[in-house]
Design a protein that fits this description.
Shape of chain B: globular
Radius of gyration of chain A: 24 Å
Mean pLDDT of chain B: 84
Largest sheet of chain B: 2 strands, antiparallel
Largest sheet of chain A: 5 strands, antiparallel
Mean pLDDT of chain A: 92
Helix content of chain B: over 70%
Oligomer: heterodimer
Number of strands of chain A: 15
Strand order of the largest sheet of chain B: 1-2
Distance between the termini of chain A: 50 Å
Largest interface: A-B, 55 and 58 residues
Strand content of chain A: 15-25%
Shape of chain A: globular
Structural class of chain A: alpha+beta
Distance between the termini of chain B: 13 Å
Helix content of chain A: 25-40%
Order of helices and strands of chain B: HHHHHHHEEHHHHHH
Low-confidence stretches of chain B: none
Structural class of chain B: mainly alpha
């Protein structure tokens, strides 16, 4: 199978170099170079062929209809610029010299990097030679990290800044009440969910010894039905989240409407727990980040209260993300019995969710690499792998729909909670578009 | 005297090594730096390899000694997150912190000393009581709250002062950027410096008041009065001068803590100094920055203490005598 790419003619890099097939081939090899952190996105055995100056073929040993969906994370470098600055190969993470390409930029986009002080201030100016016409009218963009949320809100209210992200839920009324500012809210494609350890024979952080209650689907369903997502949305998320039945945003999956969450039903939950042999519940630790997602710790606190009502005593372990991810990740040996996590599929479609979150773990290929609970159903994997080879989008979604049905409803492998909401604060004189992947697209900004 | 200094220098080096060891034994509890560096595409094996290459699997003592060994040659490594040499990052942020600390110290002296003197001379006046009440607030209000209150009043409500950042800076030579030379730079300094100075000011005011009350009871003040000197001469030429000796000692020692405690003030006001860098580095588990910053703060305290020790010995004859005694 091969993918043929036709390049736009007349595109120039910021420093004047022409954008050609050589740059694409060079950049693809750079992605595959030894120090690269993105080696996985291009199959190592792919043959990359220059057809002419503006045509490139990627010849794959195995068909992959989703190749371009898997590619949003790598960009094109100018070959001559990279070679002139000693940046022809990706700089390894452990390098003791600063990477030139990490601190400078030479792209083909609507804005040009003017200065970059990491963690302090970054400035861009409009690219007058951009190949396309910007829909906005911004000449200069200054990006300043303001770590304290209250200061960030104050800076917006006082008119010192025009645009900020995120607005804490508590401050949204204030921002809207101020005549010059408003909150732009919209659904984000990130899904927040609860996961349960289904792989160990004994839970690491629980009162139950000698066995793992989460291996019993009745216990997982009991947890699911004990949680009142509508209440979480109303009280914790102030109605701005979108309760979710799937591990993917409805915007990214055509068949989403067919799926409904299991109803909130504490009585059914108690009954399931009793059937599974835990009429008095049990004790388990919930690991939760407290600086990663919108109101993450508060969601976990709500979950603790809801599970207490069906007799399950949950010990909340809320930590900063640096510690949280260190223990729940593969490197931390997936050390969690029960956890809250969020996931955005970077490919903007379902295969990514099955590959990283719901696939059987395989350390060699990184398949299931972020499947902390270790859920594994070969039938689900088979469907997902079949979908990955299916060029027809509708048939692909049929496979994914069946896989979701098995993984989330027959097996109750995860408890999806909601898609959280984006909350940008903007001056009323500034008109921005808010894409659900939370990208800031400067070319789309118009100021009165 | 020289033997004394040499001994103190060796003790200081011991302190620095101890700080390095303690720091590195704590870093393992901060989180996993590799997890903060890689994306989801990176396989477990690649992560493990990176961890090994960065030396994160070595015992804390080996990591600490390796870091100190490099540090002794002024090589502090490259930041995991920003990919720039740590020495450059800290160097670029240092002027912001030092200017803030300097202004805050001056502010605390200029406001704290007169308030203390006044409170001592007019113990029962309404204004003194107000000062006392204010100083209680200064000691008990947490810095971030004071900062946010100031921002709400002066930036949001009145719109007089910028709520974040350092304003426009002017570059002086290769190592220094200053906010003193622009209007926006000076305006940006007011609130962070006030916030940072508040605690020191309170301390100085209370210290001056207590010392002053003590001195005013001394015999030489009574004699001065008996000689018929004017009240202002007695208060300011005789009493205040004697009050200031301990005050200056405290201010010197506190300079170190102003720099160290500016972390919170810097975060509230997004002040691009070392404190904010340190806090970012904790969030990112950026061990080279954390280690270098802690070592820098330790070095500053060690130097200040060393200087104070040496000054004491050279000023106070009693200490010198005891040194000679030790030698003999």
């Amino acid at each position: 199978m091969h993918w043929r790419f036709h390049l736009r003619k007349g595109v120039k890099f910021d420093e004047g170099q022409d954008f050609t097939a050589d740059d694409v081939i060079f950049s693809a090899h750079r992605v595959l170079s030894a120090g690269s952190d993105l080696k996985g996105v291009i199959p190592a055995d792919a043959e990359i062929v220059k057809v002419d100056d503006y045509t490139v073929d990627f010849i794959l040993k195995r068909p992959n209809p989703l190749l371009i969906s898997q590619w949003p994370t790598w960009g094109i470098f100018s070959k001559s610029w990279s070679e002139a600055h000693g940046a022809a190969e990706a700089t390894p993470m452990n390098a003791r010299t600063p990477p030139y390409a990490g601190l400078h930029a030479n792209g083909t986009g609507p804005f040009i990097l003017v200065s970059h002080e990491p963690g302090v201030k970054t400035v861009w100016k409009k690219n007058p030679n951009w190949w396309d016409k910007p829909t906005g009218n911004v000449d200069e963009v200054v990006f300043t990290p303001i770590p304290n949320a209250a200061t960030r809100v104050a800076a917006l209210l006082s008119g010192e800044i025009d645009w900020m992200d995120p607005v804490p839920l508590n401050d949204q009324d204030r921002v809207n009440a101020n005549p010059g500012t408003q909150v732009l809210a919209g659904p984000e494609i990130r899904t927040i969910f609860l996961g349960m350890d289904q792989s160990r024979d004994e839970l690491g952080h629980s009162s139950v010894k000698g066995k793992n209650p989460f291996k019993d689907v009745r216990v997982r369903k009991a947890f699911y039905q004990a949680i009142d997502e509508d209440a979480i949305n109303k009280k914790v998320m102030r109605g701005q989240a979108t309760p979710s039945a799937l591990m993917i945003s409805p915007a990214l999956f055509s068949r989403s409407k067919e799926f409904k969450r299991f109803p909130f039903d504490p009585e059914a939950s108690k009954k399931l727990l009793a059937e599974a042999g835990y009429p008095d519940g049990f004790e388990v630790q919930l690991d939760c980040p407290n600086d990663r997602y919108v109101n993450d710790e508060q969601i976990c606190q709500a979950v603790v209260g809801m599970l207490a009502r069906v007799g399950v005593k949950v010990d909340l372990n809320a930590e900063p993300k640096s510690k949280f991810f260190a223990s729940i990740s593969a490197a931390g040996r997936y050390d969690s019995s029960f956890y809250l996590l969020g996931w955005t599929p970077t490919t903007l479609e379902s295969s990514n969710v099955f590959q990283y979150i719901m696939g059987c773990r395989d350390p060699k290929t990184n398949w299931g690499g972020n499947n902390v609970g270790g859920y594994c159903n070969p039938k689900v994997d088979e469907l997902a792998r079949a979908a990955l080879l299916e060029p027809d989008a509708a048939k692909r979604d049929d496979d994914f729909a069946r896989a979701y049905e098995i993984a989330l409803f027959d097996d109750v492998s995860y408890i999806p909670l909601h898609q959280q909401a984006l909350a940008w604060g903007v001056a009323r004189t500034v008109h921005v578009s808010q894409p659900p992947n939370n990208y800031y697209v400067f070319a789309w900004v118009t100021m009165d | 005297m020289i033997a004394f200094i040499v001994r103190r220098v060796f003790a200081s080096i011991g302190v620095m090594i101890a700080v390095g060891l303690i720091a590195f034994s704590m870093f393992r509890y901060v989180g996993d730096p590799v997890n903060q560096m890689v994306g989801v595409e990176t396989s477990v094996a690649e992560q493990a390899q990176l961890r090994e290459e960065l030396g994160l699997n070595d015992p804390a003592i080996v990591q600490a000694l390796r870091f100190l060994g490099h540090a002794a040659r002024f090589d502090f490594g490259v930041s995991y997150q920003f990919k720039e040499p740590v020495a450059d990052l800290i160097g670029a942020r240092m002027p912001a912190t030092l200017e803030l600390a300097f202004v805050a110290s001056i502010l605390s002296l200029v406001a704290g000393i007169p308030m203390g003197v006044y409170a001592a001379l007019h113990r029962d006046s309404a204004l003194s009581r107000l000062f006392q009440a204010l100083s209680l607030i200064g000691i008990s209000l947490p810095t971030f709250l004071t900062g946010i209150l100031l921002i709400t009043l002066f930036s949001v409500t009145l719109g007089w002062l910028p709520s974040f950042g350092r304003g426009e800076v002017v570059r002086l030579g290769p190592w220094w950027t200053t906010g003193f030379l622009t209007v926006s730079g000076l305006k940006s300094l007011i609130m962070p410096a006030t916030t940072l100075a508040l605690f020191q000011m309170t301390l100085i005011m209370r210290l001056v008041r207590a010392e002053m009350l003590e001195v005013l009871r001394a015999d030489y003040i009574r004699f001065a009065r008996a000689r018929g000197l004017s009240e202002s001469a007695i208060h300011f030429r005789h009493a205040l001068k004697n009050t200031l000796v301990p005050v200056i000692t405290i201010v010197g020692l506190q300079l170190g803590s102003i720099v160290a405690f500016s972390i919170i003030t810097e975060t509230v006001f997004a002040w691009p100094g070392m404190g904010q860098l340190f806090l970012q580095s904790i969030q990112n588990v950026d061990i080279p920055i954390m280690a270098a910053y802690l070592l820098f703060i330790a070095l500053m305290f060690v130097i200040i203490n060393l200087v104070v020790d040496i000054l004491y010995v050279s000023i106070d004859p009693r200490l010198r005598a005891s040194l000679h005694g030790m030698r003999g």
